[in-house]
Write a structure and sequence with these properties.
single chain; 504 residues; alpha+beta; Heat Shock Protein 90; 6-stranded antiparallel β-sheet; 45% helix
Length: 504
Amino acid sequence: MGFHEPDRDENTPLIQTDEVSPKRLRQYQMLVELGQLIVSEIKMDTLFEVIAEQTRRFMDTQGCSVFLFDEEKDQLWSRVSTDLKKDEIRFPADHGITGWVFQHGQPLLINDVHADPRFYPEVDRKTGFATRNILCVPLINRHKKCIGTFQILNKKSGSFDVEDQEQLKSVANYVTIALENAKLYEDLKLLDKAKERVINHLAHELKTPLAIASGVLEKVTRETRTVPGLHLEETLKRGTRQLQRLFDLQNKIDDILNQRPVVEQQRILDIIQNSADLVEGFTDQGPANQAEIMKGIADRIAALFSKDPIQPEWLPLAPLLEDLLQAARSAMGARELEFMLNTEAPGQIHMDRQIVEKVMGGIIRNAIEHTPDEGRIVIGSNKASDGIRVWVRDHGVGITPANKAFIFSGFFHTMDTDLYSSKRPYAFNAGGAGADLLRTQVFSERFGFSVDFESRRCVFIPEDTDVCPGRISKCRFITDREGCLSSGGSEFSVHFPDDLSRFS
C-alpha cells in the first residue's frame, strides 16, 4: 500500500475550456492549485493548517475545519482549524450538523444555523466562534467509507449556494486523499519508532552486563595465573570467546541503529544455539553437572512456553486485591505512595489464582514504577454485565499518544533511550522490557479475559524526552499535590468474564 494521487470521479468537474467563462476557468485553475498544495503536505499537524487556511481563502469564508472520526470513542474531533484555533474539540459522532453529515454521508447547506434544530452550539461556546451559516460535506475515502467531515463557515459575501457546495465537494476529494496519505505516513513513523525503540532497548541492555562480565572475566584470568594447579586456562579462553560473540552482537545492533545493513544474520542465531558453550565457559563442572545445568535451562524454557490447563477457582476479590496490594507495598521498599482500595464489586472471580496474581501484580508494579513519590494509586473493581472489571489507576506521568499502540508489545520502553536506565523493580521510572504487560496480553488471549488501557501524559512533561523529578514536592511546575494528581496518569482494567469454561 502506498500514497496515491486523486482519481477522477463523478464528483470531480471536467474542465471544458470552450464551454466555461474566464471566471469559471480561473476557479478551476485555483482548485487545481489548491489540490496540489493540499496533497503535497504529508505531516498531519501541518496538513490541518494548510487545509484550513487555503480553503478559507479559496472559498472566501471566515472559518474552515476538518473533523475526523475516532472509531474507538465514537466521536468526531478536530486537531487544528482556523475557527477552532489550536484546541482539540471532541463531541459524539451523531451530534450537530457535522454529526448529521457524518452519519448520513450527505452534504448540508444551512444559511441560518440557529433556525436548524441539528445545530450544536456547544462547539461555538467552547471556541468563542459565532457560526452564522455552514456548508458541510462528508469525507468519503476510496473504500466508500466516511472518515469525517469538511466544513466552511460564515461566507463573507453572504449566503452559501449550490455552486459553493460543488466546489467544496471537489476540494474534499483532495482533502480525503491528503488525510489518508498523512495517516499512512504517521502509521509508518510509529512502526519505525517502535522498531528503533526495541533495538535501542536491546543495545542498552547488552552494554552493562557485557562490561561487567568482561571485567569479571579479566580479573579472574589475572588472579588464577597466580594460583598453581587450577588448570582453568582453556575454560577461561572458552568464556572469552563466547563473550566476544556477544560483543559482536552488540556491534551488529549498533550497525542496525546506524542503518547499515546486517549481512551475517545467521551468526545471531548461532549465538543462541551455542549458549551452552557460554554456560560451560563459566562453570568448572564435570559433564554430569553440565548436563544437569542444561536440563534445568531446558525445563525453564519449557515452563515459560507450556500450556498446562488452568485450574480455575472462585476467588474472593476483596481479600485477593488486599493481598496483592500488601505484597506490592512490601516489595517497593522506601517508596512513598498513597494507595486506595475501592472494591465496588466485593464478589468473586472464577480464575486460576496464579494467573490473576501475575496479571494484577504486574499491573500494580507498572503503576508504582510510573508514579512519583507522594503520588496516588487507586485499585478497584466494579460489576460488569457478564463478569467483574478490576482496574488500577495511577496519577503518574502517563504515556505519550505515540507510545500507546505499543504498550503491550514487549521489549518496548516508554522513555527516551538516552534517559533510560535499568533500576530495581518498583523504583520510579524503573527500566524494563515491558515483559509484565506483554505477558498480560498473552494471558488475556489464552485465558479469555480482556485488558483495556487509557492514559494521559502529564501536561507539564508531554514528550518522552521530558523528565519527572520522581517526587511531587520537587516538581517546578506545580504548587501543590493536587496539581500533580490532576495532570496525567494511566488506567489498566481487566475484565474477568463469568464463564471461562471453554478456556479450561
